[in-house]
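Onboarding guide, step 5: your first structure request.
Type a short instruction followed by the sequence, for example:

Predict the 3D structure of this protein.
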Amino acid sequence: MLQLARRIGRAKPSAIMLIAEKAKQLKADGRDIISFSIGVPNFLPGDHVYAAARDALAKDSGQYGSNRGSDALLDAFLAHIREVGLDGYARANVATGIGAKHVIYNICEALLDEGDGFAFATPYWTSYLDIAEILDADIQLLPCPAAQDYKLTPAQLDAALAKKPRVFLFNNPCNPTGMVYSRDEISALADVIAKYPETWVITDDIYNRMVFDGLGYHNFVHARPELRDRVIFIDSLSKTYGMPGWRVGFMAGPEVVAKAVTTMNSNHITNLPEVVTAAAVAALSGPQDIPVAKCAEFQAKRDQVMAALSQVPGLVCPKPQGAFYVFPDVSVAFGKSHNGVRIGNDVEFCAALLEAKGVACVPGSAFGEPRAIRISYTCPTPQLAPGLQRIVEFFAELK
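The system replies with structure tokens like these:
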């Protein structure tokens, strides 16, 4: 009997999309559903982005583009990252892809052989584990529970890097927790990384423009410029500009890595579409009023979510300072029942919440933390307060 390749058995569908699809189906069936599940920003880019796309369609060349990305797009991205203090990069240090997920996959495929060590913190974005398993890497998880604010400590990182993993992947601001590392915390971790020159470092920082409370965005290269030779920075249009469906991701890092990603593109995708490239250049180079306003709006929504969750006795939730997620530890509900339905874990909690209150959240086990759930608060503003009230009522009704 013909068989698929072994790696496809290690690939799994997105747990987040499964929840989102279930919520969508319930809504289609007539249920009143409020979704806090999928991590989409739920706003659209400015008119100048669409104008650029229309102009590109009118002038479409019909030709193949650059495997790396057009010069105009590379230059726009370089100008964009200089604004957050990542200067000194040239076109040779940059490459593009069909979204950040594709760029990360290409980088991991370029850096990791089967069995190579791949270290990252838990909770993690779901695709990190999926990519590691598809590539058959030696996965090294670094648990960061709510008790330590879901943040990696220098001691943990030191112990992990002492095992000489080929790649350490770091996410700041973090999906799913919304946590952001301060300048001092980044500096302390960078000091550890400097001790271990055999490990590549990927910083998945696609929420770097969504930081609250004046904390600011900080990168290992800011703290230790000499790390530039092995730190690879990831960014995307999806969250900052409300363009997840346009699928544009970027990397900036060592020339050898950017060249490898470009080579992978030549085999996988050839190039980004011309119309998408034009829209991306306009987003990066044009007015930034919408991203700035949305960051302020998300901070206000964060405050609203935290105020609601503070009403639940025993619930633990470190205060996020970026992205648009809150990641409460809901284990206080485990062992209790709602209308006769016993809740033993995060999956059962989310299933009971969806059935009883019509609120969709993602179980924390999808992110490697089974005591928690992820709340994405980018829903339309009129839905936020009712959705939060339903969650508070659900907890109050537990017995």
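Each response can be followed by summary notes, for example: The CA atoms of residues 164 and 198 lie 7 Å apart.
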